[in-house]
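Worked example 2:
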Amino acid sequence: MNDDAPSVRVERLVKRFGTFIAVDNVSFEARRGEIFGFLGPNGSGKSTTIRILCGLLRPTSGHAEVAGINVAIDPEGVRQRIGYMSQRFSLYNDLRVVENLRFFGGMYNVPAKELPQRIAWALQMAGLEGRENTVTGSLPVGWKQRLALGCSVLHRPPIVFLDEPTSGVDPVSRRQFWDLIREMVSEGVSVFVTTHYMDEAEYCDRLVLLDRGRIAAMGTPTELKTTHMNGELLLVDCSPLARALALLQRVPSVNDAAVFGSSIHAVVADARAVMPAMRALLERQGVQVQRIEPIAASLEDVFVSLTAARKTPTELAA
């Protein structure tokens, strides 16, 4: 793979399981030395796509290259050029920390003379120095997570795939894990990560937003927030929420409305123009309004707006 080639190239990728289409005509490129995020809810096709790119599933049709290698033709060649960390961390809980590292070093064909140095590097990276003989199953989840990352990159691969690596991990451990990811990227490693956490998506250089197997949008976090909202965003702090939401969803000037926490986010064409009428409507219908104000869109707002736009009238009414 030359220096200018993309680390991952996907063209019209399709994966079917019987009549179910898990990945539907997906195309994108991931560059070298960037964090490329795959964002979407459970069941959107993120894990299926990443398993294809790791040579673990054959695509039904389309073309995919990883590190310049065709994943359908040479999946073993792909696996030797990448690191892969699954949602379940793929560790052996009954082995000690160092035994897991030795096992994965063998799996990745790390030369025996280099293995001690690689293990020492992985222990330091994961913050597990002095815990080499700890039984892996007794480690806190955050430490298991870092150990799993260390095991997956012992062979120093140029591309690392992380499939929802922080599911079930506490916020502090999640932040520490992302510090490790940024450190790897600073050394030229390409990191491809799937997540359904919107705050994690902000850490990515570029993102694909996936919905029901299809790409809903692609770009940097800033590009997505500034170009993919169908209007301006209003925060409506009121009660009861259910009644207010039902009212706003019937207002012609409201393009979209959804509950976010204890308030409502409403997408409108002109926020300042509709605020007085919106307040008056809600109060006439017995809704207590604490505040209505324009706010900046988050990635979650963008995703909700894009996925709502793709739903059929039957789905929206459900």
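The radius of gyration is 23 Å. The CA atoms of residues 121 and 154 lie 8 Å apart.
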